[in-house]
């Protein structure tokens, strides 16, 4: 690397969307320093994500910000139903409804201390930003744009433009993380191809404001309305803030690029609502729905995370949640590398573990889109005749059954596992079924460590995060000293926790369970391993 730098940082994060902010926050929480550069001022004009998944909420719990998400201004009493409309809201027919209680009435499932949350990006990003900025070691620079970088095996030198002054900064970093979104300039510069389908649909999102929307029609309120016409599904309306802002999406097929005119947007809103009304358009965002995963997540000292690594249809709410999972997986590994106890393979395990998780989410999201678009053409669909009614009943039943899969996703959010990971020690037990809806807790290596409620009210999940944890379960657990000593020899932080709680042993199934800083199981057994050094070397990526 050549030349002097203006700023030296262990980790440069490019992009402070939700994934860059989660990355900065988790590094700060681990006591690491980092610098994040973001070209905008952080304002969100088009909230995209609004579902904070249950695993992301578990991470928020770890970071101490779950209560902030739960207290976000999204109205807790707003019904979360998904409703399927033939024709328009005012003049058409409700052909199906998936009822879902308001957030205030939703409870965590038995497998978690948390529940998923409705918290749109313009409310969630500021919570992550405040969390990240609570650490003195985290430096977030808004209105700073990465314009170029040199990448070598021992570090990166980035050129960043300070947009307010036009000044150029050179930032030297041991690692750089590209959290620069789906259009990632860093990924393009590294020449990393995206694999998959680059255009599932062309969609235009319109955020409009109207107070009293519910009074425009006779359908009971809900979170999302999906509109079906004679040519199938064509639009959705989402209660983006549960009050006066609505996200209207016009969905066109992957063969219909281009942007609708302002006149066409107004006509489409009129068509969906079925009534004339006054509203204010706050923003318009044409975007392409994709199903893509980067071929590689790493090049030298640069890593891809979030939408820069994968682009998926929002159907299912997996995009940001997958990206936050990337950040959590990468952060503890980067922390280990900077602290000197990572083996050579630890950082490479990031792509081995996270790429299949992205593929799984991308495929499920594309499948959800296919189900949403499944009704197809039907000439009689909007006729006010017995034949029209028969068709609507038939389509409504079929559509309602198909769409359930998008709403019931516990298995997607909690059930991803790091099968075949080089840093997990497989124990030969068969995997639990990988079902998008059903999640069966297991402490099988590679899986998320199970949640068990402890006598003092905490969750087992509250024990994990900062270091490796060796759980010793039950009164008869063997002496863990050899494992602790092996970790000590390698400088790998390890906390030994004895748990003699009635529900913990059945959930974890073994007397010793080694849990990684991200809360996934690395190894388990009923006896101390014959070669504890080998186990420790495997889980820290040194074998
Ligand atoms: C309609 C819609 C609904 C969605 N709903 C959900 C949902 O409910 N749940 C969910 O999990 N996901 C959802 N998603 C997906 C989610 O919005 C994305 O996955 C998520 O925003 C990705 O976060 P990110 O931080 O990786 O990228 P982004 O949010 O795109 O952030 C990238 C950031 O990098 C900055 N940047 C880019 N280049 C540079 C540069 N050169 N220098 C400095 N900064 C730069 C950009 O300004 C931007 O702020 C939805 C998406 C859409 C379109």
What does this molecule look like?
The chain is α/β, with parallel strands linked by helices. It has helices at residues 18-29, 54-63, 66-70, 121-133, 185-189, 262-273, 319-339, 349-372, 386-407, 410-414, 481-490, 504-508, 532-539, and strands at 7-14, 34-38, 51-52, 82-86, 93-98, 117-118, 138-142, 144-152, 155-162, 168-178, 194-209, 224-229, 232-239, 245-253, 280-294, 298-299, 302-304, 310-311, 468-473, 494-499, 512-515, 521-525. The radius of gyration is 24 Å and the shape is globular. The mean pLDDT is 96. The site of flavin-adenine dinucleotide has 31 residues, from α1, β2, β8 and α7. Flavin-adenine dinucleotide (FAD) binds at residues 14-15, 17-20, 37-40, 48-51, 145-146, 179-181, 185, 205, 287, 306-307, 314, 317-321, 323.
Radius of gyration from the CA trace?
24 Å
β-strand amount: 25-35%
- Count of discrete alpha- or pi-helical segments spanning 4 or more residues: 13
Bound ions, cofactors and other small molecules, one mention each: flavin-adenine dinucleotide
User: What is the number of beta strands?
Assistant: 22
Major sheet summary line: 8 strands, mixed
The shape, in one word, is globular
Q: How many angstroms does the end-to-end distance come to? A: 30 Å
| Helicity range | 25-40%
What are the segments in which pLDDT stays under 50 over at least 5 consecutive residues? none
State the secondary-structure class: alpha/beta
Question: Mean pLDDT across all residues, rounded?
Answer: 96
């Amino acid at each position: 690397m050549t030349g002097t730098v203006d700023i030296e940082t262990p980790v440069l994060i490019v992009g402070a969307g939700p994934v860059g902010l989660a990355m900065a926050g988790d590094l700060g929480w681990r006591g690491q320093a980092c610098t994040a550069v973001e070209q905008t001022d952080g304002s969100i004009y088009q909230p995209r994500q609004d579902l904070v998944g249950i695993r992301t909420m578990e991470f928020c719990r770890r970071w101490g910000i779950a209560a902030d998400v739960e207290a976000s201004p999204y109205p807790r009493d707003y019904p979360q139903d998904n409703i399927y409309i033939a024709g328009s809201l005012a003049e058409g027919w409700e052909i199906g409804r998936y009822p879902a209680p308001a957030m205030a009435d939703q409870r965590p499932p038995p497998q978690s201390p948390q529940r998923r949350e409705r918290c749109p990006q313009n409310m969630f990003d500021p919570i992550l930003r405040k969390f990240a900025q609570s650490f003195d070691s985290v430096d977030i620079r808004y209105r700073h744009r990465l314009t170029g970088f040199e990448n070598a095996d021992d570090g990166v030198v980035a050129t960043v433009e300070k947009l307010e002054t036009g000044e150029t900064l050179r930032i030297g970093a041991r690692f750089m993380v590209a959290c620069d979104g789906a259009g990632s300039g860093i990924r393009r510069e590294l020449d990393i191809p995206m694999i998959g389908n680059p255009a599932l649909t062309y969609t235009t999102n319109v955020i409009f404001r109207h107070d009293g929307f519910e009074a425009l029609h006779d359908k009971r309120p809900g979170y999302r309305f999906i509109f079906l016409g004679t040519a199938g599904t064509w639009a959705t309306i989402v209660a983006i803030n549960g009050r006066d802002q609505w996200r209207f999406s016009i969905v066109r097929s992957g063969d219909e690029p281009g942007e609708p005119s302002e006149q066409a947007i107004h006509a489409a809103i009129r068509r969906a609502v079925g009534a004339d009304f006054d509203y204010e358009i706050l923003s318009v965002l044409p975007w392409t729905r994709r199903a893509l995963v980067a071929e590689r997540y790493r090049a030298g000292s640069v890593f891809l995370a979030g939408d820069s690594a994968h682009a998926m249809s929002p159907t299912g709410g997996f995009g940001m949640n997958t990206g936050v999972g990337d950040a959590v997986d990468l952060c503890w590994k980067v922390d280990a590398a900077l602290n000197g106890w990572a083996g050579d393979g630890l950082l490479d395990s990031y792509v081995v573990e996270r790429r299949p998780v992205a593929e799984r989410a991308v495929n499920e999201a594309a499948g959800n889109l296919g189900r949403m678009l499944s009704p197809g053409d039907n000439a009689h669909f909007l006729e006010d005749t017995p034949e029209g009614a028969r068709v609507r009943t038939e389509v409504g039943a079929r559509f309602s059954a198909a769409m359930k899969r998008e709403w019931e996703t516990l298995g997607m959010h909690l059930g991803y596992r790091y099968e075949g990971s080089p840093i997990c020690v497989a124990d030969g037990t068969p995997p639990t079924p990988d079902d998008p809806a059903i999640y069966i807790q297991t402490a099988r290596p590679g899986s998320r460590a199970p949640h068990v409620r402890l006598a003092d009210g905490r969750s087992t999940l509250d024990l994990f995060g900062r270091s490796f944890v060796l759980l010793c379960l039950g009164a008869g657990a063997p002496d863990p000293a050899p494992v602790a000593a092996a970790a000590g020899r390698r400088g790998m932080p390890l906390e030994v926790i004895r748990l003699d709680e009635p529900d913990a042993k059945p959930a974890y199934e073994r007397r010793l369970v080694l849990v990684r800083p991200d809360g996934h199981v690395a190894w388990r057994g009923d006896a101390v391993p014959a070669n504890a050094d080998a186990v420790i070397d495997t889980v820290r990526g040194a074998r």
